[in-house]
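Render this sequence as a predicted structure.
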Amino acid sequence: MNGRLTVLLLAGARGPDDPVARASGVASKALAPVGGMPMLDRVVETLQRQSRIGRILLVADTNPAAAEAFGKMGQRAGVELLRQGPSPAATVEAILAGLTADSYPLLLTTADHPLLSDAMIDSLLALTPHDADIGVGLADANTVMAAWPQSIRTVTKLGGVGYCGCNLFLLRSPRAAGAVRFWRHMERNRKKPWRLVAAAGLPTLWRYLTGRLDLAGAFERLSTLTGATVRAVLLPQPEAAIDVDKPEDLVLVERILAQRGSPQVPPGR
């Protein structure tokens, strides 16, 4: 891979009653403290440690109460502040439409991923096949549950094997926009994998329901539908699948960071 990565970091909200923001007493989920610092700060600092990363396009929550915190983050060197659209997929689609070819490769991730590490990013970059327009980070569900049995993750079964999403995507070329358009149409069903498969046609749905649709087959069909070569990338770090969707996830993430020996940063640093 040549050139420096552009990062598209999604830190928008999905509604006024986000349980994580409410439990943490903050205006936006991305600002919920983890290990003594906001999740967003933790993710940005991880990204800025990577010498291969150039621009960070930060998609901010539109909640006026969070504007000051996001504004300060937007003043950091290398961070450009953007506003979220009506949905994550619509936001990404609009941003990609405004990028030039030299903005690629692009790393897409989220601010509710405070366990993001250099190793996860390195694995995604190293393991994404050379023919891929998009590499989709996944983790083996059994590995995730073995490491963190108290974690409740969404699991998609393909060929009898369970997989968890990792909120990590490598977009290598402008052809990735085709997959983002497909994502926009399907994002309402992200927790209903059988509906996602149904969009690929009855033969594919039948293979899924009978357990005969494996990971490679699913991604080949996705590539056909989107006009982009989309490949699954199995990440060896089980923590890559742990994001923060609910208050219980915050407790788990704090425990993992403590086991890592991650420094606790005083609030208001």
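Summary. The longest strand covers residues 161-171. The chain has one domain: 5-260.
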